[in-house]
Amino acid sequence: MTNRVNFAKTAPKAFKALIGFDAAARAGLDPALVELVQIRASQLNRCAYCLHMHTSDARKAGESEERLHMIAVWHEATNFFSEKEQAALALTEAVTLVQGGVPDDVYERAAAQFGEEELAQLLALIFTINTWNRIAITTAKVPGTDERGGR
Predict the structure, then answer these.
(1) How far is Cα 13 from Cα 111, in angstroms, rounded to an integer?
(2) Helix or strand run (H / E) with residue 31
């Protein structure tokens, strides 16, 4: 494999702007929900680097192994997740996979569980994790090496 660009070092303004966007997106959201969303998007995007990072962060924050194992199959394991978490996971999937737009029923389900401001924060979080996934995948970040540097 050829050496890949170190995005943080070669595009520091863009990297810092994304860190700021990420921090703003998380503001006011339940930290456990943040990790669930980031894990599910990372699974869908097949981003091993981010998946390792966010499952590790979730464990450190007290998330159970049982729930971590069920995120990939949450549709079949709804008893592990609250209605609000399920709505967030459904929205994460719809935004991450973007196949013809976000279905109205998925959006309405999320809107019923989150206030308007919190829903906007959730959307911003989904946007940022998808961007982080694409950076990590494109620059071939190695899973298990947390290079956040303050992120």
Answers:
(1) 33
(2) helix 31-45
